Amino acid sequence: MTFALDGISYEIDLGTRNAAALRRALAAYIEVARPVIPPASLTASEVRGRLASMCGRYASVASRADLLDAWRGR
């Protein structure tokens, strides 16, 4: 089971009985909470478009890897 609290994600292996107990304990909070939908993944062409926009030009094949590394913070 995965959950997050205070911006930190956790994972715990629970048996059926303990999982049910945790769900009961959290039921009141879950009832008033809202689900978080993960952001959609970008397609390769969207990434290239964003990189080109960031650079103000289309990246050459040779520099594309460098731009991706820079964008990823490497």
From TrEMBL:
Domain (Lsr2 dimerization): residue spans on this chain: 2-36
Q: Which GO terms describe its molecular function?
A: DNA binding
Going by the entry's taxonomy, the superkingdom of the source organism is recorded as: Bacteria
A Pfam family cross-referenced in the UniProt record is Lsr2
| Record-linked Gene3D superfamilies | Lsr2, dimerization domain
Q: Which InterPro entries match?
A: Lsr2-like_dimerization, Lsr2_dim_dom
Q: Please give the coiled-coil regions recorded for this protein.
A: none
Indicate what this protein is called per its UniProt record. Lsr2 protein
- Name its species: Kribbella steppae
